[in-house]
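sry for the spam today, last one i promise. struct tokens for design, 118 residues
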């Protein structure tokens, strides 16, 4: 999948079966710490955007989404669409992508979305 390659997941060093067990132990420890955080602070849910931008064309994503942490912890995460992108939502040029090269790359994908009909 091009998106997995773009975010670098296909270049990760392989591991053996013990390595996978170790990763599961670390994941369980992280999940336990987050459960404690939720319980200690009486948190039932966290509402946040799934990404810092609008949708990009299929399989062109270049960063891990905000929901990745919850997927990693095996917590439920859901994305609820609330509206449609309209031509009036389009940004005027790439100069507004002012957070560096990665932001420009994602911003250009969003611009592509506005000019393409699926």
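last one done:
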């Amino acid at each position: 999948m091009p998106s997995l390659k773009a975010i670098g997941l296909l270049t990760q060093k392989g591991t053996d079966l013990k390595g996978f067990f170790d990763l599961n132990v670390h994941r369980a420890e992280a999940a336990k710490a987050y459960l404690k955080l939720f319980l200690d602070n009486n948190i039932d849910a966290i509402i946040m955007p799934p990404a810092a931008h609008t949708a990009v064309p299929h399989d062109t994503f270049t960063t891990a989404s905000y929901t990745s942490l919850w997927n990693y912890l095996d917590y439920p995460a859901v994305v609820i669409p609330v509206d449609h992108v309209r031509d009036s939502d389009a940004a005027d040029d790439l100069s507004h992508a002012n957070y560096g090269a990665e932001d420009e790359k994602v911003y250009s994908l969003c611009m592509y979305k506005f000019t393409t009909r699926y």
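Residues 113-118 have pLDDT under 50 and may be disordered. ok im logging off now
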